[in-house]
């Protein structure tokens, strides 16, 4: 019984996995923000490349 209590106390005091989870959450939030920004910018960039393509074709 004492060994189980000591093991549980040791597991509760262990903080090494918490930092990995926090870094994972931060990375996932950054990725979600990047996806939102790129999808919002994607339509404008498609129009920009289409404009450049039409200008190149007209100049040839």
Automatic annotation (TrEMBL):
Pfam families: Flp_Fap. InterPro entries: Flp_Fap. It comes from the Bacteria. Keywords: Membrane, Transmembrane, Transmembrane helix. The chain crosses the membrane at residues 20-41. This is Flp family type IVb pilin. The lineage of its organism: Bacteria, Pseudomonadati, Pseudomonadota, Alphaproteobacteria, Sphingomonadales.
């Amino acid at each position: 019984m004492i060994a189980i209590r000591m093991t549980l106390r040791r597991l509760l005091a262990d903080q090494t996995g918490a930092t990995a989870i926090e870094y994972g959450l931060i990375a996932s939030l950054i990725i979600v923000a990047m996806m939102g920004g790129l999808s919002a910018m994607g339509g404008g960039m498609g129009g920009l490349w289409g404009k450049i393509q039409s200008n190149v074709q007209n100049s040839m």
